[in-house]
Amino acid sequence: MEQLKSRIEAVLFTTAKALSAKEIGEILEADTETVEEALLELIMDYSSRDGALEIDDENGYILQV
Fold this sequence. Notes:
Blueprint: H1 2-14, H2 21-28, H3 32-48, E1 54-56, E2 62-64
Antiparallel strand pairs: 1-2
């Protein structure tokens, strides 16, 4: 799961628009359910850090300051 989280993070970092879990899964050739689980873990990881970055999931998933 950690490798998938890193790959998702890279996709979000390089993409300037919000993506759905399905779109991320298509890019990474991973199933949507696994991508959604990894995204939830990433959201929790970012919320527990004392940093400026976060993953917003209001209109898709996007990495933002």
